[in-house]
Structure formats: C-alpha cells, structure tokens
Design brief:
By secondary structure, the chain is mostly helical. It contains 2 helices and no strands.
Length: about 70
C-alpha cells in the first residue's frame, strides 16, 4: 500500500515536471516574456518538481532494499 502511494506520487510529480516544462517552452516560444520573469519562474518550478521526483524515487529504492 505504501509503495503504491509513492509510485502514484512519483508519477504525479513527473507529470507536473512535464507540464511545467511544456508551459515554459510555450512561454519562451511566444516571446511575450521580455524580462524572462515567467520563464525563470517556470524553470524554478521544473527544478523543484524534478527534485521531488528524484527524492520519491530514492525513497522507493530505500524501501525496496533488502
């Protein structure tokens, strides 16, 4: 049960990373973000979601270690 929850959280974090990445690419492609504030914010969110995903994967590996 615990591992299932972690896997669901990992998938959600990975999908959030993908969504933020796509949004950041769209913002950059439109060229409306003159100062780069939105692009930088999206990059920060992407890095945070990637870190969360890696942390969850590490916890899963630690729990499966025998």
């Amino acid at each position: 049960m615990q591992q299932t929850i972690l896997i669901v959280l990992m998938i959600a974090a990975a999908l959030a990373t993908l969504g933020v990445l796509a949004r950041g690419i769209i913002i950059m492609a439109r060229g409306n973000d003159i100062g780069g504030i939105k692009s930088n914010r999206m990059m920060s969110y992407r890095v945070a979601f990637q870190a969360l995903t890696i942390l969850i994967i590490a916890v899963i590996f630690l729990l499966n270690r025998h």
